[in-house]
Write a structure and sequence with these properties.
heterodimer, A: about 500 residues, alpha/beta, ten-stranded mixed beta sheet, six-stranded parallel beta barrel, 12 helices, about 25% helix, globular, B: about 450 residues, 10 helices
Chain lengths: ~500, ~450
């Protein structure tokens, strides 16, 4: 396997405790003052020149948020967050909205170049990459560029930032926003509803198979800011889209908050494939710094035979609190969740999924692989439930955990609730360490301990990696090895 | 939100109001009174558990326990004598009537020596009520079942009586010790029995508990059994819950396991309206083998909850859990199992399985098998399944001429049988198999 070989080389080449996206870009920035109040909410809305109903929606969310409390049920520990000590809006200064990619600040383009994200369409075409990927680049609080918009438009697909969608397609946004994750869903979702700044908007019309992969690349750059993005994907009858999401942030001693909301809507026979490679800065080996990742992601299979699949590779963030879920409302709809969560250092991961079976003959599948190393804590928390009327619901869940070293923890907390006699749920979970026998076998054939570990770990996560689009799979495989670097021996 | 203190329910108010008087009338020396008060304070602070308390998520006592009942009185001497005379009353409803065993009878939470007969070398049985007053032999009381739990706290505050059983070092008890808990009387009462068992090093014993009471009476029981398993001891514990069909039964088993101890416990639930059985097991030595299992046959609007907390605190431990629920009509089954492996507990081997068969569209099963692992060199796993009877198997049997009810009964008996197989004592296992058959027969006739 060439990818395995590459992984092994990658592991060797990189020093322990190195986060390769940890650089910071110096830019002139337009920032809102620190703190959170109604004026800030108004300011964000004004900056985005939003319609009046959106401002009302935000203010309503803000007022609700004031009455709510931070959830404490997750297995994560962190000092109290001072929500008044954050800039809720930070955007690179630009004279006017960039019309073409050439108007974008070269420093930002350079940042994305360093991250390996091509924003110039001709570069992508000239490159070796076979398949095209359209990118929406979100930098702190704003979307700085979206590629291939024109080409997608020809196919009828709308792909733009959510701010733009609020101007261009307000009716669509108004119809769907907040219908999957209600404003009052949870503490962080409500906060997001009040102060979200940007994110992506995708609309695929009836019968259209989106001609290329869509992706959003999130980058936190400014100090003391929070990133609150909102993504809304609507796929009409019989349509299909594959969407990728990537995230990185500079290496800093302080913690930064990232609270996103993602809503997916699949109508009759529609399919959404949503893949994430989350690589926020995880903090250093002593747990200093890193991103707090509190994310609400939910897909609604509204239509008959619709399908939503979540694939995630979680290697970054100091704290991850994330449960991409599927509401299986449509008859015969299907939800899938494939996850690899790698934690090292002092990272804390509490992640999983919810599969809520409401419709008849709905099916779901959960494959979760957790790898904990160093002093990290890695929890799978998931819910599978069948409603009274979900006749013939079917679920299969498999969550495996791998422990590397004696100072980490791996936990499994599944909730399996069946209220229908004809539904069949199966759940299995295992926790183990890398088998001495396997290690010995590999080492005896000339691999070093680290190479052998990389090989075994790659085998452990293979089921999930196979679900990722090609380009992402290679990237993800490298990432996993890097994240585990320094944990062997 | 979870930390909001809800308004007190009538039952909570009644329990709080009843405690000062109960504390004076219930047995106990100064030490026991202090224990009762501490437990009561814990209860008062927390109140009755409700669905926002994670461990009680699926069994909401705030709603289920409408009112607190007066404590049941002890049988007076004349009643006990009369009871002993009337053979029929005692033998009716006794699932283990035929069993050759040492008998200990506890009526309405009070030990009745005149009905009990234990005559085995190395075994002493004392009245807990007396021991609470004198303080003799109860040093270990409350040390096995120690979780921060409202049901445990309530029992510790209100415990009325029960027995203290001591099995001497090296003793191998010839026959099972059969603890028979009977609830009598037409008035619904609250009953808080407690049993403390100390099994000496290398001793071997089979303990059987059977609980029964009258149908149609909404009495409440909250029993705690604590078992201290000495090093290399070998214990088998079987509990049959055949409380009356309107009863609310809370029970807890706390055990502290010594080095290389082998402990098997099985809980079998048949009839009560609401049953919650919790097991708290702590591994205090190496090379311990623990096996906890359960089976429940539920129908009507029954609700049965099995909750486990297995704490692997020492290396080289092995634990096996197997729970089977058969759920008919609108009944609800709950399984919550938590295996914790502490950082030091290397080489732990844990396997937990919960299986449920839903026989009706309105049946509900909640499964929550949890693993919490802090040591790396372990092999732990859990599984949970939930579904209807397999159509293919059913078809196979019917194609061979078995009518549907019989085919179903055969499959269900096999399903429950997997858990019953763990019982080593043949006559005990056969008695429970007979109970299963009776339940299945009643269902097939319906």
């Amino acid at each position: 396997m060439p990818a395995v070989k590459e992984t092994v080389e990658q592991v060797k080449a990189i020093d322990v405790d190195q986060y390769k996206y940890g650089f910071e870009t110096q830019l002139e920035v337009d920032k809102a003052p620190k703190g959170l109040n109604e004026d800030i909410v108004r300011l964000i809305s004004a900056k985005k020149k939003e319609p009046a109903w959106m401002l009302e929606w935000r203010l309503d969310a803000y007022r609700r948020w004031l009455t709510m409390r931070e959830p404490t049920w997750a297995r994560v520990e962190y000092p109290e967050i001072d929500f008044q000590d954050i800039h809720y809006y930070a955007a690179p200064k630009m004279n006017a909205a960039p019309k073409t990619i050439d108007d974008v600040d070269p420093a930002i383009l350079d940042t994305y170049k360093k991250l390996g994200i091509p924003l110039r369409e001709q570069e992508i075409l000239a490159g070796v990459q076979q398949s095209k990927v359209a990118v929406d680049a979100v930098f702190d609080s704003v979307s700085v560029a979206t590629t291939f918009k024109e080409e997608l438009k020809k196919a009828g697909v709308i792909f733009c930032s959510i701010s733009e969608a609020l101007h261009e397609y307000p009716e669509l946004v108004k119809k769907y926003i907040g219908t999957v994750v209600p404003v009052t869903d949870n503490y962080y979702a409500t906060l997001n509803s009040a102060v979200f700044t940007d994110g992506s908007f995708v609309y695929v019309p009836k019968g259209v198979r989106c001609p290329m992969e869509l992706s959003t690349y999130f980058r936190i750059n400014e100090k003391n800011t929070g990133q609150f993005e909102r993504t809304l994907i609507i796929v009409e009858e019989g349509a299909y889209v594959s969407y990728l999401e990537g995230c990185t942030a500079p290496q800093r001693d302080e913690n930064q908050l990232h609270a996103a909301v993602v809503e997916l809507i699949a109508l009759d026979d529609a399919e959404i494939k949503y893949s994430t490679v989350q690589n926020w800065y995880p903090g250093d080996k002593d747990g200093k710094g890193g991103i707090y990742n509190f994310v609400t992601k939910r897909g609604d299979c509204r239509g008959k035979n619709s399908k939503i699949s979540w694939t995630q590779v979680e290697t970054g963030s100091a704290i991850t609190w994330k449960y991409p879920s599927c509401i299986l409302r449509g008859e015969g709809s299907r939800g899938e969740f494939y996850s690899i969560a790698v934690s090292n250092g002092r990272q804390q991961v509490d992640s999983g999924t919810k599969m809520i079976h409401l419709g008849k003959n709905t099916t779901s599948r959960i494959i979760s692989k957790g790898i904990s190393a160093g002093h990290s804590q890695n929890t799978y928390r998931g819910l599978v439930s069948a409603h009274r009327r979900a006749t013939g619901a079917r679920n299969f869940t498999n969550c495996d955990s791998l422990l590397i070293g004696n100072n980490c923890g791996a936990h499994t907390v599944p909730y399996i609730e069946s209220k229908n006699g004809s539904s069949i749920f199966e759940h299995e979970a295992t926790t183990s360490k890398i088998s001495e026998d396997q290690l010995f076998y590999c080492m005896q054939r000339g691999l070093s301990a680290e190479e052998a570990t990389a090989l075994i770990v790659n085998g452990f996560v293979k089921d999930v990696l196979q679900q990722l689009p090609m380009e992402f799979a290679v990237e993800a495989q490298k990432l996993i090895s890097i994240s585990l670097e320094g944990s062997v021996g | 939100m979870s930390d909001v203190t809800p308004i007190r329910t009538p039952a909570e108010n009644a329990l709080i109001a009843a405690f000062p008087a109960a504390r004076k009338s219930l047995p106990g020396n100064a030490h026991v009174i202090a224990l009762r008060e501490a437990a009561f304070n814990r209860f008062e602070a927390k109140g009755l558990p409700h669905r926002r308390v994670e461990e009680w998520k699926y069994t909401d006592l705030r709603t289920a326990l409408r009112d607190a009942l007066p404590l049941a009185d002890a049988l007076n001497v004349a009643d006990a004598a009369a009871l002993a005379q009337s053979d029929s009353c005692l033998s009716s409803g006794d699932a283990f009537a035929e069993l050759d065993a040492h008998r200990v009878v506890i009526v309405n939470g009070h030990f009745v020596p005149s009905l009990s007969s234990v005559n085995a070398q190395g075994v002493t049985v004392n009245d807990l009520a007396e021991a609470l007053s004198t303080g003799a032999g109860i040093d270990a009381l409350g040390t096995m079942a120690k979780a921060d739990d409202s049901a445990l706290a309530l029992n510790a505050a209100f415990m009325q009586g029960g027995v203290v059983i001591d099995i001497a070092k090296g003793a191998s008890v010839d026959k099972p010790i059969y603890l028979r808990f009977i609830v009598m009387g037409q008035e619904a009462r609250a009953i808080y029995p407690r049993v403390l068992v100390t099994v000496g090093e290398g001793a071997a014993v089979t303990l059987i508990e059977a609980h029964q009471g009258g149908d149609g009476i909404a009495y409440q029981t909250n029993a705690v059994v604590e078992i201290k398993a000495g090093a290399k001891s070998h214990i088998q514990h079987i509990r049959l819950n055949a409380h009356g069909d309107a009863a609310i039964d809370l029970s807890s088993l706390g055990t502290d396991l010594g080095e290389a101890a082998e402990f098997k416990s099985m809980n079998f639930v048949m009839r009560p309206a609401l049953a919650r059985h919790q097991v708290f097991a702590r591994f205090s030595g190496e090379h311990i083998k623990l096996d906890v299992s359960g089976a429940a046959l539920l129908k009507g609007k029954q609700h049965a909850d099995s909750t486990l907390y297995v704490d692997h605190a020492m290396p080289h431990g092995e634990s096996r859990e197997l729970f089977k629920h058969v759920i008919d009509d609108e009944a609800v089954g709950v399984f919550q199992g938590k295996i914790v492996v502490q950082p030091i507990a290397q080489k732990t081997d844990g396997r937990m399985m919960s299986q449920a068969i839903l026989l009706s569209d309105d049946a509900t099963m909640y499964n929550k098998p949890e693993l919490e692992i802090f040591a790396d060199d372990v092999a732990c796993g859990h599984g949970a399944t939930c579904g209807a009877l397999d159509d293919d198997l059913l078809f196979y049997l019917r194609a061979r001429g078995l009518p549907k009810p019989e085919a179903e009964a055969l499959m269900l008996a096999a399903f429950i049988g997997e858990a019953l197989e763990k019982i080593e004592n043949d006559s005990v296992r056969e008695a429970l198999e007979a109970q299963t058959q009776a339940w299945l027969l009643a269902r097939a006739v319906k």
